[in-house]
């Protein structure tokens, strides 16, 4: 860990928003980071602005698009800024909602 990792270490499990160098924003629960500022976000949502041109009038409109990405690794070289978006969840088990159904590798009870 880096010398100043203490400040970032205190933000583990917080809901964070990272702004990338291409203008996109990623929001999610910060699970990990490293000295290169690579970030691991859980329950990630990507926000980006898209310009759309109306074919009939020629006018452009700026709309925000959102998509869910899930567990994401964000390369530190692309991170411009990080900000706190919300506190960590009070109940860690509530983060992922209901438990996932057991798969074929789980024993049936």
From TrEMBL:
Classification via Pfam families: LSM
SUPFAM superfamilies per the UniProt record, alphabetical: Sm-like ribonucleoproteins (SSF50182)
InterPro entries with a match to the protein in the record: LSM_dom_sf, Sm, Sm_dom_euk/arc, snRNP_SmB/NAA38-like
Coiled-coil annotated residue ranges, if any: none
Localization of this protein: Cytoplasm; Nucleus
Annotated family: Belongs to the snRNP SmB/SmN family.
Protein name per the record: Sm protein B
Organism, scientific name: Lineolata rhizophorae
